[in-house]
TrEMBL record:
Domain of life (superkingdom): Bacteria
Identification of the protein by name: NIPSNAP protein
Amino acid sequence: MTYLMLAQLQLRYGFAHLPAYTEGMRHVRELFESQGIMLERATVTKVGPLYETWNLWRIDDPGHVDRAMAVLAPTFTQEQQEAIAAMHAVVESEQVRILENVDLPSPSTTP
């Protein structure tokens, strides 16, 4: 079974906050991917609520992130800690969802 984690983050308003977020996410991605949590897509809203980001991660199961953080937390470098702290300083809110694939039947080829 394939699981996905969808993280929606609302950043503080203003263009100046986006660089801190992207730098922090660079480190988060590097750390997560070292534990097999793969970033499928990272987006920012173009029309709609400004500075809203969506990150879709492929995970093994609902506990994958917790296990990865238990391994990673003691190993954060000073640079990683500072970048992630700066990223969190510009995040106003975050919602995380764990999703699983739905097996849909193939479209019928007969008229």
